[in-house]
Write a structure and sequence with these properties.
The protein has one domain: Rossmann fold (3-Layer(aba) Sandwich), CATH 3.40.50.1820. It is built from three helices and seven strands; from the N terminus they run ββββαβαβαβ. By secondary structure, the chain is of the alpha/beta class. The protein has a seven-stranded mixed beta sheet with strand order 1-2-3-5-4-6-7.
Amino acid sequence: MALVMNARPFESTRDEAPAPGALSLRRVGGRAAGSYYLYVPVRRLRADLPLLVSVHGISRNAREHGRALSRLAERYGVALLSPLFARDFFPDFQRLGVDSGCRADVALDEMIDDASERLDRSLDQFALFGYSGGGQFAHRYALLRPERVAALAVASPGSRGPPSSADFPMACAPGERSRGCAVIWSAF
């Protein structure tokens, strides 16, 4: 199988279907603008498996995540979404953006909603993978939105994992810094 790469990022209409076998850069707008790479396998998407989301580290190499995991997505018949949290808009994406005010968790939700429309399927739950800073993001996202995360895998997050109820990770503690973040402890 040959992987087709788009030469340039493009903006496409909401009703445009993604090209199977191609890794495409998509742009979304809304409360938190962002971009993401979407890979749709050539073979039919399996209805019994969730979307795979792979979050980059601080090097912001979303395209490389898309390239590296596209073979896995093809093999299992799943769509792959790799968000690009651009440094200018999401300097602290691994902390969900609560310091900068650009919420990376909200942006990911908008990207997934956009992919859901493009794929014409519900993506209420997804498998979430994060590497390095993306691992920190994945931990915090799963704490805040456990109902959306069907599976979680984290590699080299550089900080400790999910906390006890008395020990919060940075950007998830209740109070002024949390800016509306609420950990749902009963989900764990």
